[in-house]
Structures are given as structure tokens and as C-alpha cells.
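hey so i finally got around to running both of the ones u sent me last week. sorry it took forever, my laptop kept dying halfway thru and i had to restart like 3 times lol. anyway pasting them below in the order u listed, first the sequence line then the C-alpha cell line for each. didnt double check formatting much so if smth looks off just lmk and ill redo it

first one:
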Amino acid sequence: MALNGLKVIEFAGLAPAPFAGLVLAHHGASVTRIDRPSASSTNDALCEGKRSIILDTKNTMGLATAKRLIAGADVLIDPFRPGVLERLGLGPEVFHDSEGKKGLNDKLVYARLAGYPREGEQMLRTLPGHDINYIALSGILSMLPGTTEKPSFPLNLLADFAGGGLLCATGILLALIEREKSGRGQVVNVDMVSGARYVSSFPLLNANDTSPYFSKPRGSNTLDGGAPFYDVYTCSDGKWMSLGCLEPQFFSTFIDRFNATLRINGMKTEWTPTRAKQFTQDDWPKLRKYIEEGFKTMPRDYWADVFQDSDACAVPVLLPAEAASIDPTGSHRPAPHPQLCRTPASFQRGGSSTILEPGTHNEEILIELGLPAEERKQLVLAGGLGVELRDKARSKAKL
């Protein structure tokens, strides 16, 4: 695999940082997640291929062990708000060389994934937030489809995963490529407000009065639900079909098949659209009503068969279980992408467990780190792996 031999330390966090680590793990990196004592892994489904060690970084020996792990790593993923790791004594200045001072690991790629811009207002950059807050400040939420009263948000995809985790993994890979030239690591700063703006470059750069895509109020443009030929329609069974025939040749294929199918099924209407009506915006309300009523005459799978193997750009909206059944990997877990032909990603087919219990690999990782048995014992007894494990060890010793 492409990243074989790469050592990554990932501090446990929410979705964005685990996803960045997952991308690296899928391509061969050895990813070690540092969990807090009493941590729960029930919400982390992005742990495939990773290992876990519990370390109490507020404990002197636990902190020293974390520092030792990072000193021997290629990459660190920091998921915390700005200043958290610095206050612990694990900031980039500890590891990178600076002003004649030797750091512990100048080759370290130190990736920091925050919510708000680090260079922004002091009060804002230290506040908590989530995807919906980040895309709200990015400018893109105000452009998304929804109702006339308010826009809808696309789950937590735009900021958490696209603008956060994926761009963080990209930044790490870019820094690793540069390290091959300079021999030095560097800090990679990613924030999800800026990341969401970057992955939304096309709509944001077209958010002006002259744009052919977004010059009108939200919900009335070509790509935000305004165009009847770019939308989702309900079928007779309550399921949906997606329609995306933007180009005239694709719209022609769609409307010809759609009209013919409705005629065959005996549907009579006062108005039948032609190919030429696609961009006649005065007719869009009639065209939308026509398409809506047409799709409602038959179930989704019927329409899927009508447009199968055509250029109509009309395909069924699949539920997650349905989409998994046609996945070429044969797994319910989304497969790594992109796929490299010579060094493909590692992937557990068949739906492997998405749970990585904190501390599962404590002993294994500490042995790899070179800690002899007596030091490992002292680490436990000092509470470096958490008070629960320390108390268990002490109780066992009394017996």
C-alpha cells in the first residue's frame, strides 16, 4: 500500500479527525489513536485499521509517554480547539527545530484540525461548534436548497468531512511530499469554515448578479432546486427519482422517454412539454407540475427501468441498504476512494466491526515503544493509563 511504514498518532476526536486518520489507515499507515481515560468508542465508526492506547495526558508519566509516541511518529493529528495541546506541552514547538533549538522530531507533520479560522477573532476561534455552524459562517449554507423560509443543511458532510477530514488528509500528504525535498516536517492548519468555503468554490465564486447559475434568489436557480430538470421527484410508492438533465441533449432524451411512457400508460394532460421548453423559464412552473404528476403515476423501480441505460440523467434515489447491495466491493462499508491500481487501499469487506475499544492495544504499543516491563508497570501504577487501570493493578498486587 502507498503509505506502508508511515506512523500516525491521532488524538481521539469527533468525525473530521477520525476520517483524516481513516484515509491514511486505509492506504497502509499505522494509525494509533490516543484515547482519554474512561473514553467511549461507541460513536466512532471511523476506526478501521487503527489501534488504540489510553493515556492520561494530565498525568506526568502519561504525558511523557504521549510525547515519546509523537517523537517517533511521522504525523500527528490534533482535533482539539486551538491551544489545547500547546497548554499540555505537546505543541509543535516541542517537536520542530526553531531558532537554534533542537526539537524532539523535526520531521513531524503536525496537522491541526480546528472549527473556526485560527487567524480570526480571538473569541470565535476558541468557541465550540459543529458542521452546521461552520457552513453557516462559510457563506454556503445561505445558498443551499430548502424551503422558502430557510435553507436545509446536508447532514454534516460539507464541513466535517469534505472541508475538514478530507482536506486535512490532503494537507498531510502534501506536507509528506514536501518533506521528501526538505527533510523537515511542518504544521498543517485546517479549519472547517475555510475548508467548507474551499470545497464550495464553484457556487461561492458564482454568487453574483451575472452568474448563469446563482444570480437569482435561493431556490430559483438552475442548481438549487429552481430548475425542474435538476431536482428530486416522488413516485407512486413514496420513493424518489433524481433528475439531472442539465444539457439539452440529455433533457431531450429524458422528455422524449417520459412523454412516451406517460402516453403508453394513458396519462392525459392539458399541456405536453417539448425539448425546446427546457430553458423557457416562464414555463418552468408548468414543466415542474407535469414532471411531478408524471412520476407519481408509477413506482420508483418502474421509472428506473424506463431510464436505465439512457442518457436521461434520471436515476433512482437509493436507501443506504440498497446502495450497499450494488457496491462493487460487496460490502456495507463505503470502500476507500480513489483506488490506486498498483498500491490499492486495504479494506475489510463484508462489514467489519466499527468499534475500537479504547486501550485495546495498550501493551502492544508500549512494547513497540521500547518500554521495558518495569516501566510499563510503573506507568500503570502512576495512573498514566488512567486511574481505573491503576486501581485494578493495585488490587491485583494486594491479592
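and the second one:
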Amino acid sequence: MSNFFTKLSEDADENDGSDLMEYITFVTDQGSNMISALRNYNRLNCSAHLLNTVLRNVFDLKFLSQEDNNGSKPLEPIIVLMTECKSLVKFMKSSGKNNELSTVLVQEVETRWNTRLLMLQSVHKTLPEIIRIHGEYFGRIQNINSELLQNLIEFLKVFKNASDELEGEKNPTIQKVALYKCLIRNHLLKYANLENNPTNDEIELVEVNINSIMQKLGEKALGILNSKFKMLKMFSQELGERSRIIKNIEKKLLDLESKDNEMLNNINVERNIDESNRPSSSVFSEWEDCMRGQDIQEPRYKYKKELENYRAESFDIGDDDILDFWSKQVLRYPYLSKLARQILAIPSSSASSERSFSVAGRVIEERRSCLDGSTVDAILFLNNYYSKV
């Protein structure tokens, strides 16, 4: 990576000798190799990977198999449901019955995000058709609890919607991360706060306590979410988080203005050298409209006034128009618009690049290991283009 960016910097028209990687924010998974390799540079965790980590820990077999104080396994019905759904999908595919369904059954793949939800949704949607084909007493559906199935689908939907939105390739998505974190948190709080105080008689009558199961899932997911997204708390004024964020913004704006002032000072030095040969001013120069040194009397930091004006206004901006909005604010908010472009250029997820690596892995295989680099680039370009048409 260092060699690549060094060469890229050397090939640029203007090269000041600085490390190009210092100006880049890398978005990666939480792999120890990536964290170690980029420890001296700006790096952010992929938000989609974080969401997947939350679900992976929630549906981990060790957690679902834990015993309570009574020696029972309250979350075991989830294990049974997932096992039965996987078995049903496998049977329908291998028997050829899958083709008779209006919706194709989807099998869960551990390495592919959201396939757990896709599997549950496909089973839920096709269950009436499966009953029509095999009968109501078909053995492979007897242990599928339809109520628990529906609850798990609703539980997982918000995670898929968030990861799909945050994987955007053409539009900026980093501004949505904190919002989706709060949306998911509120979603999980509903489950974590479910009332679950059944009497002994009710425990004997109810085989599967749905509220108890969903409450435990909500509590587990909420704890992991808060630990993984701990730097994205929702800006509480009481905890001073808004002040912290505003101070960070002010620091970045100060850096931008300082660089501009440094450039202007260099220009003024050159201009003063040129003007040193000009005739001296008249005796009435103190009353002239255009006075030397007038710019020194201007406010030192313009960004502060700019930030105050921006915070005092209200805007109605859609996510799809956010870049267009800032492109039109260059004159009103020159430093804020520059900072916005820098931040919005950072992707919130590395999913798009990982898809490219996945496709490349299928292109460059054992029998095609001698493909020319330009050929591989062309194949990846065509795959990316036609996947969006």
C-alpha cells in the first residue's frame, strides 16, 4: 500500500514530498492485520462489519445454548428453529421441489451478510405453499414455530436495512451511521424492555415464551451495539457530547482557515516585494477608501462566524441531495463546504471494495492465473457495470 501511494504521489503533477496516505481515511474491517498495518494512519471501522459482528455474537451457539439458574436453555427454541429451517431449505433444493414454489428458498451462508434473514423470510413466505405440497403434517415443518419465526424476521429487518443503506457506492453514507445506530438502538430497546413476568401456571402452559426469548436477544444485541459503536453516541447535550463534536469541527475548520491564511501570507509577501518599487503614498493616504493594512483589522477567524450562521439556520436536505447542497454553499460557507466534502468522501462501509475482491477471486482462479492485469480490470468493470443495469 505504501509503495502504491508513494508512486501515485510521485506521478502527480504537483508533489510536495508529503506522504499521501496521511491525507486518506481508510475504512476496513476489524482484522488485526488491517489495524496493525494502518496503525499510523487514519482508519475507521466498516459500519456494516460492526452490524454483522453484533448479529454474529447474538446468534452464536455458545450464547444461545447457555443455561439459566433453573438448568434450562431459554434460547434453545432459536437453535431448533434455525436448524429446522436450514434442513427444510436443503431438502427442498435437493429434491427439486424448490422449483414448484413461487419464491425460491434461500440457504443461510455464514460468510454472507443478512442471509439468515433472507432464509427466514423465504421460509415464512413459502410455508403455506409447502403445506399445500406436502400436507399439514409434513415432518420437516413440525418444529418450525411460526410465531418465533415472524418475531426473528422483525428483529433482523432493521439490521439489513441499515447495512444495505450504509453500503451505498454512488452516494455518501457516512452521515447516516450515527442515525442508524440510534434507530437500531431504539429498536433493540423495545425488545430489551419487554415485560416478561409469567406465573408458574403460565410457564407450564406455554412451551415457548416468545417475549422472554426476544427480550434476551434485545439485551444481548444492545450491549454489543453500545460497545462496538461507543464512539457514535447520539450527541447528548447533558453528557457534553454535542460540545465535544462542535469543538472537533471547530478544530478542523481552524486548520482549513490557517492553511488558507498561510497561502495568502505567501502571496502577500510576493506582492509586497513587487510593490516596494512603487511610488510612496500621498500625504492624504490616511483618508483614502482603500487603505493599506485594512485586511489586518478583519476578524482573525472567519470560520467562527460561518459556523454560527450555519447553526442558526434550518435546512431541509435529503440524503440524495447532500453533495449538491454543499456544492452550492461554497460562497456562503467556504470552510464548512470544504470540510463537508472531505468528510462525505469517506465511505461508511468497505462492502463495495470487498465485492470487487470477491469477483476478482472468481476471475483469477487456478486455471486462469496468467490473465493480464488489464483483462482482469476490464472483467471487473463490466461485472460492476452490468450488476447495476
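quick thing i noticed on the 2nd:
Strands lie at 25-28, 42-45.
anyway thats it, ttyl
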